[in-house]
């Protein structure tokens, strides 16, 4: 048998149950992975609350690292004994073992342990596509980064600095401001009151070409006011709730702006893109361009406690659940 955190109904952290489930057998094209560490992400909350839909009962979780136990017919990408990691759909990471399509797994290089791999896969790949694909950051660019002390935020700050960009990090507390500065933020704002005025002051009136926003509803309109003409608003999460419907004429009035809602699943749908992204991410970690801050760990069976801390904005950096 395998142990798994499952939801039988959507709701608060109390719906997370520590269940016994049959250990699955890998079918054609699949691999059975024994998890050594599982990553915690805000998207897990969306599935738990029902904002994102799944059939019930469901094992949630999008990210983990471990070793391949067995493979099904036709698998060539990985072999039993390989150290591997993965992120994105389908859900099912909150388990001691799970079956997943083998072409979604990548080998973890020597020098990166399982906890670090589980902490970095979804967040690191997200930072990569935001910086190198959604908006191709150049040396000298000024970037506005919300939730700058979060898992994606801390990686994004470091990577942007390595590129040669200037970052304006937005955080909720002074302690998180110190953390953002320690991870490469050029400027830090505590809270999003008077956000546009502060960005105008920092940029000498030029404003910014791109805003990276995982907060959503509470910051969206203020963030639009921080963009330079033709600027790009990147909404890649909605921790405060979904952005309400938008009258597109607002984008015209504020400077012919662009808005996008990207997902990691789209950017890594092709295996070649997945491998290229993780290769770049692992290289950046191994050469010291970025470091992964695991600031909280919980036993997997205590996932409800981890969810409470995440939703209360009590976490920074990455959180790892240990089976």
From TrEMBL:
<dbReference type="InterPro" id="IPR011032">
    <property type="entry name" value="GroES-like_sf"/>
</dbReference>
<keyword id="KW-0560">Oxidoreductase</keyword>
<dbReference type="GO" id="GO:0003960">
    <property type="term" value="F:quinone reductase (NADPH) activity"/>
</dbReference>
<feature type="domain" description="Enoyl reductase (ER)">
    <location>
        <begin position="11"/>
        <end position="321"/>
    </location>
</feature>
<dbReference type="GO" id="GO:0070402">
    <property type="term" value="F:NADPH binding"/>
</dbReference>
<dbReference type="InterPro" id="IPR036291">
    <property type="entry name" value="NAD(P)-bd_dom_sf"/>
</dbReference>
<dbReference type="InterPro" id="IPR002364">
    <property type="entry name" value="Quin_OxRdtase/zeta-crystal_CS"/>
</dbReference>
<dbReference type="InterPro" id="IPR047618">
    <property type="entry name" value="QOR-like"/>
</dbReference>
<dbReference type="InterPro" id="IPR020843">
    <property type="entry name" value="ER"/>
</dbReference>
<protein>
    <submittedName>
        <fullName>Alcohol dehydrogenase</fullName>
    </submittedName>
</protein>
<dbReference type="GO" id="GO:0008270">
    <property type="term" value="F:zinc ion binding"/>
</dbReference>
<keyword id="KW-0521">NADP</keyword>
<dbReference type="Pfam" id="PF08240">
    <property type="entry name" value="ADH_N"/>
</dbReference>
<dbReference type="InterPro" id="IPR013149">
    <property type="entry name" value="ADH-like_C"/>
</dbReference>
<dbReference type="Pfam" id="PF00107">
    <property type="entry name" value="ADH_zinc_N"/>
</dbReference>
<dbReference type="GO" id="GO:0035925">
    <property type="term" value="F:mRNA 3'-UTR AU-rich region binding"/>
</dbReference>
<dbReference type="InterPro" id="IPR013154">
    <property type="entry name" value="ADH-like_N"/>
</dbReference>
<dbReference type="GO" id="GO:0005829">
    <property type="term" value="C:cytosol"/>
</dbReference>
């Amino acid at each position: 048998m395998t142990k798994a955190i499952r939801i039988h109904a959507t709701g608060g952290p109390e719906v997370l149950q520590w269940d016994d489930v049959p250990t699955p057998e890998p079918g054609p094209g699949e691999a059975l992975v024994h998890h050594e560490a599982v990553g915690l992400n805000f998207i897990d909350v969306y599935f738990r609350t029902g904002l994102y839909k799944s059939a019930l009962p469901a094992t949630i979780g999008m990210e983990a690292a471990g070793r391949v136990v067995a493979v099904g017919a036709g698998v060539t990408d990985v072999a039993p004994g390989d150290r591997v990691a993965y992120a994105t759909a389908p859900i099912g990471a909150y388990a001691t073992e799970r079956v997943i399509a083998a072409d979604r797994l990548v080998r973890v290089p020597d020098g990166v342990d399982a906890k670090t791999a589980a902490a970095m896969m979804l967040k690191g790949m997200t930072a990569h596509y935001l910086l190198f694909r959604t908006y191709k950051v150049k040396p000298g660019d000024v970037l506005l980064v919300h939730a700058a002390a979060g898992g994606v935020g801390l990686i994004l700050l470091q990577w942007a600095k390595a590129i040669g960009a200037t970052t304006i990090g937005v955080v909720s507390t002074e302690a998180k401001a110190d953390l953002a500065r320690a991870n490469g933020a050029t400027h830090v704002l505590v809270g999003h009151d008077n956000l546009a005025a502060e960005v105008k002051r920092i940029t000498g009136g030029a404003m910014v070409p791109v805003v990276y926003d995982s907060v959503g509803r509470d910051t969206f309109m203020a963030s639009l006011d921080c963009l330079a003409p033709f600027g790009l608003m990147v909404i890649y999460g909605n921790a405060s709730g979904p952005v309400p419907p938008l009258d597109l004429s607002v984008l015209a009035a504020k400077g012919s702006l662009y808005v996008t809602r990207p997902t990691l699943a789209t950017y890594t749908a092709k295996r070649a893109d997945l491998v290229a992204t993780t290769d770049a991410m692992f290289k950046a970690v191994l050469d010291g361009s970025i470091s992964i801050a695991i600031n909280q760990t919980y036993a997997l069976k205590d996932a409800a406690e981890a969810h409470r801390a995440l939703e209360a904005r009590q976490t920074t950096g990455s959180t790892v659940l240990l089976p």
